[in-house]
Amino acid sequence: MELKNLPALTVLSDCVTIVEVDQVKIVRVMHEKASAGIALHGGHVVSFAPQGQKDLIWMSDKAIFDGKAALRGGIPVCWPWFGRIAAPAHGFARSTEWQLLEHRENQSGVIVELGLFASEETHQIWPYLFDARLVVEVGDQLNVTLKVSNIDDKPWTFSGALHTYLNVGDISQTEISGMGAEYIDSLLQGQVCQGEKILKLSDTIDRVYTQPEAQILVKDPLFERTFCVENQGHNSAVLWNPWAEGAKGMADMSDNGYQTMLCVESTLHAASIDQGKTLQPGETHQLSTTISSL
Q1: pLDDT band at 192 (very low <50, low <70, confident <90, very high)
Q2: Sign, Cα dihedral of 34, 73, 214, 148
Q3: Are 163 and 76 in contact (CB under 8 A)?
Q4: What pLDDT score does 278 carry?
Q5: Owning domain of residue 37
């Protein structure tokens, strides 16, 4: 996503400014190592481009920046649940305003920390007290960490995902490896399947890979690069592309948008909220993804 020519609303440092796209304020990072953008709406990374490279993150050219709808593309924060196991789908974090808590920089890059806390609005959806922080480290690589803490006096259970959209040259040429063999196929009513070591796509995919390797590699021949995705704090990796039919059904994606994106997600997957991860009062869990280009 192109942010560098937008006028700064606020200058926070030599490398960090606040800009605005329609109704959404974005923390813009411009460092000698890389540029990036993090929308306060949803705590949503919308761009990451190492110096001299094309953006590694895909954003829809029809994404709705009205400060209400979840943004299409980028890295949505799906929390306190992932999927359609409760309403709203993928939780409320991706469509709620986050607070900019801290930013700091050095020769290696910039770190931006956002926060989301319980409010009357979140309590109506999910009746618990929490402290959620999103730490975005921008440098030679992008590291995004979601830290969630239970500050309630009772345990609560959650799931979630960092729903990364990668910006590929041509999805039909893309090769994926490292996702592991076993997956739950959401297109086959949750059937457990065994897959190949190298995956090439020719149709819709919506899979929860249950035994991913430490590194998932996405070979992108058209842009002459290979993405390396390393996840932590997860129990699975979700791969998703809606393909032509799915894209046509989305108002916030161009009909051909599927051709240049692939979701590779760091996921705490659960079939229901009750089957998610339980945090006791005072406990914290971290879910992270690190994205680089080889």
Answers
A1: very high
A2: positive
A3: yes
A4: 98
A5: 3-293
State pTM to two decimals: 0.97
* In the block, residue with structure tokens 């959401």: 186
C-beta atoms surrounding 26 within 10 Å:
25
* Number of residues that this document lists for the chain: 294
Tell me the mean pLDDT in the region 258-269.
Answer: 98
pLDDT at site 8: 97
Report the CATH number that the domain containing residue 229 is assigned in CATH. 2.70.98.10
Decide: residue 174, CB within 10 A, 0-12 exposed, 13-18 middle, 19+ buried.
Answer: buried
Check if the beta carbon of residue 26 is closer than 8 Å to that of residue 44: no
Burial (CB count <10 Å: 0-12, 13-18, 19+), residue 185: middle
Count structural domains, the chain.
Answer: 1
The sign one gets for the Cα dihedral 72, 74, 78, 79 is negative
Q: How far, in Å, CA of 73 to CA of 269, rounded? A: 20
Phi, psi at residue 286, to the nearest 5°? -120, 130
CA 87 to CA 14: how far, in whole Å? 41
Number of neighbouring beta carbons within 10 Å of residue 177: 16
Q: Please, which residues have CB within 8 angstroms of residue 220's CB and are 6 or more apart in sequence?
A: 168, 169, 173, 174, 226, 227
Residue type, 89: A
End-to-end CA distance of the chain: 21
Q: Which residues are catalytic?
A: 163, 265
Tokens 């990364």 -> residue: 164
Query: Which residues have a Cβ under 8 Å from the Cβ of 282 and sit 6 or more positions away?
Result: 149, 150, 151
How many other C-beta atoms can be found within 10 angstroms of the C-beta atom of residue 216? 23
Let me know the angle formed at the C-alpha of 281 by 276 and 285, rounded to the nearest 5 degrees.
50
